[in-house]
From TrEMBL, chain B:
Keyword list, A-Z: Signal
Example GO BP: thiamine transport
Lineage of the organism: Bacteria, Pseudomonadati, Pseudomonadota, Alphaproteobacteria, Rhodospirillales
PROSITE patterns reported for this sequence: TAT (PS51318)
GO cellular component annotations of the record: outer membrane-bounded periplasmic space
Organism: Azospirillum cavernae
Protein name: Extracellular solute-binding protein
Keyword Amino-acid biosynthesis recorded: no
Keyword DNA-binding: no
Record-level Gene Ontology MF annotations: thiamine binding; thiamine pyrophosphate binding
């Protein structure tokens, strides 16, 4: 039996990751919070100060709309990704080991593509000249090739494409550890494969699904390139506007304030969903 | 005559460069430091611009002066300015000399980002057109005109057989969901275009009421726009393919696309193309001021300005009569129609207000 840590030295193994986390996450985040209170100098940069004006500018109907669109988009991406990746990963774990490894290597290689390449590739695939609508015309489903980008669907497709490998990789360990006797028991009792999937596999992994949804949601919230390449201005997320302020308007304090706000809201949402999940489990 | 005087100037500066290098070497007593000190990092726009400079400009410069150049690809817009300023606060210079567009130049002046340049070490800069010398309020020189360029009305010749003649073509109902325009108020200059096309000139932007007139007129344009782009490559690809058959783009790069046989054209509308220019400026964190002066002086030579027009497609920053450009060559990079000059002053004094109005306009 492993003993719980008692002395300070017992915490030794986690000291290194703790220091790294502090150094590369907590300190930069603290700096960002500090900058969000700095004074913007119009036509220049910024100087240290303690003002609330950056947050005040954010509190408007306009930014409220952009924020809620970003949240809805991220939620949509999370739901679609998990809805696609969950059955896919389930079927994957039923395959032979070798085939599984091949699939996982393929998905990992998708991760090596940059967001720019993904964006341009989808823009081409969804264009009227070279895109998939030409295929639809060939098989007679469409009269003339149309351009499917920029649009909300294009943005959603692009981000789901990018998030899919992550989703599979997060779901994979839990699904491959799932005891196969559970579904076998359901099958012997007369459940169809589809029935046993929805009544046994999905409920057994409810917590994993919620955790994955949250992870993909947070991942999608940070997307700033694909909405620009595949969307119209009304599909730009808050991250796009943050980039605009930081890189193009040289307004670091406002960008930092928006970023802090985005982090707080997403932390709040994640906390809320965990809380709801806990209550449901207890009931 | 020009050439001799410029060579004379070079010799003097080169000697001082060597002296500076020797002093550094003496201090550090390491020969590798001397070589490092001789490498000048020059920031130019990434992609086609940087490739052309690497091919046609920098090797000859190194041959003429002994100063090696390491070119750094910089992003357009204010992104590079932000990086330079952040780095300068940490006393770092990602590039010693950078090509900076005018809005960025002025913001850098406000932040005192640029090293004051010594005109005595830049004899060739005397030929640079006066409005292309950027100065601090106290008269010190912060930047020297590097190249000028035009943003014009571009279109795909297959999708739009007849060349447009006016910026008003953007507002044409036939262009519904067909335009590609730049996504930022401070690089698209569409407020100026609107003022020049519908309100008799950019003077109309003097007042807030005038600015609001232009915003209102611009909002009629929204339904025609398919792509608000930040990434030039995205628009260029879409224009060549006819996916986005009309829009605003750089005259120089469009000319190259025409030369490559793509079905595109660049039109100087009757209201004029938008002129903008890049200046050479030296980061205050740079320790290579001497070499930077040599470089800027070299770039101001008429022969180099002509070379830039021929190879990069930019308009010269000196009087064209001082260059050996033919009429045809000059017409390829410029136009006799008086240009629309951006209201740079507005992007400083009302930067945040304009940005907010603009974002609300296009996001809707």
């Amino acid at each position: 039996m492993r003993q719980p840590p008692r002395r300070a030295a017992d915490y030794g193994p986690i000291a290194f990751p703790a220091v790294m986390l502090l150094l590369f996450f907590a300190v930069p985040f603290g700096l960002m919070i500090a900058v969000s209170f700095f004074q913007r100098i119009e036509g220049g940069f910024y100087e240290p100060a303690f003002v609330w004006s950056n947050y005040a500018r954010f509190l408007s109907v306009f930014f409220g709309r952009v924020l809620s669109f970003s949240m809805m988009l991220a939620a949509g991406v999370a739901v679609v990704s998990v809805a696609l990746a969950f059955p896919f990963t389930y079927l994957l774990t039923r395959l032979r080991r070798r085939t599984q490894v091949l699939w996982l290597v393929f998905l990992l290689s998708v991760l090596s593509l940059s967001e720019v390449i993904i964006g341009f590739a989808w823009a081409t695939l969804l264009s009227a000249n070279a895109g998939i609508s030409n295929l639809l015309v060939m098989v007679g489903l469409l009269d003339a090739p149309t351009s499917l980008s920029p649009s909300l669907g294009a943005v959603l497709t692009g981000i789901v494409y990018q998030a899919f490998p992550y989703t599979v990789l997060v779901l994979y360990p839990a699904l491959s550890r799932l005891d196969p006797t559970l579904t076998e028991a359901a099958r012997t009792l007369g459940a169809s494969p589809l029935n046993s999937f929805f009544t046994v596999v999905v409920p057994a992994l409810r917590n994993t699904i919620v955790a994955t949804l949250i992870m993909v949601f947070v991942f999608a919230l940070g997307c700033y390139l694909l909405p620009q390449l595949l969307g119209r201005p009304q599909h730009w997320t808050l991250s796009v506007l943050i980039t605009d302020q930081a890189l193009f308007q040289a307004n670091m304090p406002f960008a930092a304030a928006m970023a802090v706000f985005l982090v707080l809201v997403s932390l709040g949402l994640v906390g809320l969903s965990l809380l709801v999940g806990k209550k449901e489990n207890a009931a | 005559m020009e050439k001799n005087s410029s060579l004379g100037g070079l010799r003097v500066s080169r000697r001082s460069v060597l002296a500076g290098g020797a002093a550094v070497a003496g201090l550090m007593a390491a020969p590798s430091v001397l070589r490092a000190a001789e490498t000048l990092k020059v920031g130019v726009y990434g992609g086609y611009f940087k490739d052309s400079f690497d091919k046609h400009i920098f090797p000859d410069f190194t041959k003429a002066t002994g100063i090696a150049v390491e070119s750094v690809a910089e992003p357009t817009g204010d992104a590079w300015l932000v990086q330079l300023e952040q780095a300068a606060r940490a006393n770092q210079a990602p590039a010693d000399v950078s090509m900076i567009a005018q809005v960025g130049m002025l913001k850098g002046i406000n932040a005192k980002l640029w090293t004051a340049l010594d005109l005595a070490k830049l004899p060739n800069a005397a030929a640079v057109l006066p409005h292309l010398l950027n100065k601090y309020p106290d008269g010190k020189v912060a930047g020297v005109g590097a190249v000028s360029w035009y943003i014009t009305l571009v279109s795909n010749t297959k999708a739009i057989p007849e060349a447009p003649t006016s910026w008003a073509a953007l507002w044409d109902e036939k262009r519904k969901d067909q335009l590609g325009l730049m996504a930022l108020v401070s690089n698209s200059f569409l407020l100026e275009v609107t003022a020049a096309t519908f309100f008799g000139g950019t003077k109309h932007l003097d007042t807030e009421a005038g600015q609001l007139d232009c915003f209102k007129k611009l909002s009629e344009l929204r339904k025609n726009v398919k792509l608000w782009y930040r990434d030039e490559a995205q628009f260029e690809a879409a224009l060549k393919a006819g996916e986005v058959p009309m829009g605003e783009y750089y005259h120089d790069v469009t000319g190259l696309a025409v030369a490559d046989g793509h079905p595109v054209r660049s039109t100087f509308p009757k209201e004029g193309g938008i002129t903008d220019s890049g200046s050479w400026a030296v980061s205050r964190a740079s320790k290579k001021s001497e070499q930077a002066h040599v470089f800027i002086n070299y770039m101001c030579q008429p022969s180099i300005q002509a070379l830039l027009s021929r190879k990069v497609g930019t308009a010269p920053t000196i009087d064209r009569k001082k260059t050996d450009l033919t009429d045809a060559e000059f017409a390829g990079v410029s136009s006799d129609i008086a240009p629309i000059i951006p209201r740079y002053d507005l992007y400083l004094s009302k930067a945040d207000w304009l940005n907010q109005k603009w974002t609300e306009l296009i996001v809707g």
